[in-house]
Amino acid sequence: MAWLRRETGLVPVPAEAPPDDTPEALRAELASLIRFVNARSSRLPPSAVVTAREITDVLAELVGENATPDIRTRVAVAGIVTDHLPTTLEAFLRAGDTASGSLLESLLDEAISLQDAERGRAADALRTQETFLRTKFSNSDLDL
Asked: Using an 8 Å Cβ cutoff, are 115 and 58 in contact?
């Protein structure tokens, strides 16, 4: 139905690619963020640097080499690493000593709640496996 389309001569703008939320990509983004924090540590309030590094430490555990975070965790980590934390730190750099640390504390609380949820899912998976194995290898009540 080419005759119904208007030829405008404009080049279509490609949609923005979604962020890569694979653990490998998140580890690379996280390493870049840690370098960002370290490079600006002399211009940030000391409490902001400490809290930012606490956040990155928690996130590093969530996407570490042996971690298998689920999609919800990966999306949340990607948001913190690529947007929330860098934006907050940039605001700190612009505001100087007048900035409030409550923004970073909120991000730390979110990172810790992600960590707790991921640990809870891992514990649930272990309990499920334990129940399966116990059922599979225990004697049946029907055995004589």
From this structure: yes
Q: Which long-range contacts (CB under 8 A, 24 or more apart) does 95-100 make?
A: 97/45, 99/45, 99/48
Backbone angles phi, psi at 116, to 5 degrees: -65, -40
Structure tokens at 47: 């409490």
The DSSP secondary structure of 46-97, one letter per residue, reads HHHHHHHHHHHHHHHHHTSTT----HHHHHHHHHIIIIIHHHHHHHHHHHGG
Rounded Cα distance between 8 and 12, Å, is 10
Type of residue at 19: P
| pTM of full prediction above 0.85 | no
Could you report the per-residue pLDDT of 6-46, keeping only the tens digit for each?
A: 555 444 545 555 557 788 889 999 999 999 999 999 988 88
Write out pLDDT tens, residues 74-133: 899 999 999 999 998 988 888 766 666 677 888 899 999 988 888 888 888 888 888 888
Q: How far, rounded to the nearest angstrom, does the alpha carbon of residue 130 sit from its chain's CA centroid? A: 29
CA atoms within a 13 Å half-sphere pointing along the CA-CB vector of 88: 24
Closest CA to 95 of 34, 36, 44: 44
